[in-house]
Design brief:
Blueprint (H helix, E strand, L loop, with lengths): L44 E10 L27 E7 L2 E10 L7 E12 L8 E2 L10 E11 L19 E2 L2 H5 L15 E2 L1
């Protein structure tokens, strides 16, 4: 498969006048690229950016690997390093390449966390929101948030979610959740919660 290379020149700064980068500072910006629907799967594709500077500058290799975060498979993506490609014409060329492997896969993930609790004898509207490091007192009803996600490119169609808790937690049935003796104020459309 022959891939077409597209060069995109652009200027940063007001009215195309460029931008002087002060010492000790960095400049960050986004470039968005759309991947064709006809891309060949499992074959790496590369995006390269070149920096053309005065030929006499001193190139310093980045001592830290810059790893990807938030991609479908961070471990398979580029490491963000750069290299000195030498002098071309009157300019030194410093280059950095991004290599990404297109894949058509399911990438499932699931998380569960406590988001609030309802004190004994109180209603849902009296729920107390929980921060990440908060503790939960005994004899309360805890509300959990379960999130299922698919970071892949094709749908998840055949799956089952199973929720389990250890004693002294107890997963409320729908009947328990709508029982007025619990004073939860939940209707018949509610989902099960855990009771401590």
């Amino acid at each position: 498969m022959i891939r077409k290379i597209i060069w995109l020149p652009f200027t940063i700064g007001a009215e195309g006048k460029g931008y002087d980068l002060p010492a000790g500072k960095n400049l960050s910006f986004f470039v968005m690229c759309k991947v064709s629907k006809d891309v060949e799967l499992d074959v790496p594709i590369t995006n390269t950016v070149d920096l053309l500077v005065d030929k006499d500058v001193e190139y310093r290799e980045n001592p830290n690997d810059i790893t990807m975060r938030g991609t479908r498979d961070d471990s398979r993506q580029n490491n963000g390093t750069s290299e000195d490609k030498g002098i071309v014409g009157e300019k030194r060329v410093i280059s950095s390449s991004v290599m990404i492997t297109p894949k058509d896969v399911i990438v499932p993930g699931i998380t569960k966390k406590a988001v609030s609790y309802i004190p004994s004898g109180k209603n849902v509207e009296d729920a107390v929101e929980l921060e990440e490091k908060d503790n939960i007192q005994p004899n309360v009803t805890t509300k959990w948030l379960l999130e299922l996600r698919n970071d892949g490119t094709i749908p998840i169609c055949d799956y089952t979610m199973k929720d389990s808790v250890q004693s002294p937690f107890h997963i409320l049935s729908k009947e328990e959740a709508i029982n007025k003796t619990l004073h939860l104020g939940l209707d018949k459309k509610c989902f099960c919660t855990d009771h401590l």
